[in-house]
Amino acid sequence: MKERMPVLKPRVVVHGGRRRRSSAGLLPRLFAAACLLLAPLSRAATVVTRLPGFDGALPFRLETGYVGVDDATGAELFYYFVESERSPRADPLVLWHSGGPRCSALSALAFQIGPVRFAEGRYDGTLPRLVRNPYSLTQLASILFVDSPVGTGFSYAPDPRGYDVGDISASLQILTFLRKWFDDHPWYLSNPFYLGGDSYAGKVTPLIAQHVSEGKIPYCHSFGIISDQLYEAAVINCDGDYVNPTNKLCSDVVQTINDLKSEVDKQGILDLKDALRRKSLAEEHYPLMSGPPEEPPFGCLAYRYYLYFWVNDNATRASLGIKEGTVTEWIRCKISGELPYTSDLPSSIEYHLNLTTRGYRALVYSGDHDLTVPFQGTQAWIRSLNFSIVDDWRAWHLDGQAAGFTITYANNLTFATIKGGRHISSENRPKECFAIVKRWLNNEPL
Q1: Domain ranges in the chain?
Q2: Catalytic pick from 70, 198, 368, 370?
Q3: Which SUPFAM superfamilies match (predicted)?
Q4: What is the pTM of this model?
Q5: What CA–CA distance (Å, rounded) separates 248 from 92?
């Protein structure tokens, strides 16, 4: 099947909650399998109790911090963690990063699915005001908003080479991020775990889910770093746990694999040309990405204007625990070409196929007023999976009216449209998006 570009970037993708085994039992094992040869921890976290522009103490728990994902360049990913406002020890945990690539996750937190939003009003030079978002998904789940890849939002690298990433390397860095974050927050290992993203993030989310579900040994096998025989020996003798071998056969094969992995660059294993290009970046100059967006008309949905001035205010940066000297100027979305990025994942369809056939639930939804990635393209690649239909195309309703259309396929794959939804449907149809995610997380029909 010949693919068109819109097919590669579904609007929103959420993976998780494997049906054959509970995620509570899977998570410790999955992350153990993904932890081989990772560097020592390097983190700094801040509990935020107040935010400039918000009246009073925050009525939800907000934590921000950095997680090191590459010792060679010192690269660190910045995150915002909002604990579920309902039942944090039982509710799902969702890792969410925005599209772009290199659009800050703060966009999702302040404009889309997070617990606050900007009060509408023309910018008058004072600090913009924040209010509660009645349709925040943090009423249903704890959410990790991650500035990924490096160079996004407040994520940074002291060494310029750290900014040279792509679909595959950035996805592996998310895996490193998760391992370290769970080391610091082990009480969430028993919670149901989901991965989600919108726009360009919908392309790489299935790849990240694949990494989480399989760990790095199958990944090394797929790139020819280890042989079929070694891979099969690891699968047979280790029973999925490659960190704490329970027998000598497993211990021996893991050691051999580790020796082979040490022969390649974990951040870029493609070819010599790419390695030489990365090395030359150390001497390149990265221009300052400056300048606020143009002021939108009053009532316009382009809240970028408010966010830019709010987040670059010194009081805001202090509240969020931003390290001085790391990111001089926060930009919502880096323009393509300002920092290197390699789109080395031609398609994520095979990962959707693998994950869903193995029993992981998936929700894909699209706004039906989006010309950037029309929903017909998303529907087309889903149909290409050739899954049988469980619940045929029908309207789904909210407040007694049709809010979009949906279809459910075998292997727990659900596709839905948001009536009137834009490129990021949660910005202009927040109530509808809240309803659809709530029903799906609760295993209810849309």
Answers
A1: 22-214+285-346
A2: 370
A3: alpha/beta-Hydrolases
A4: 0.75
A5: 37
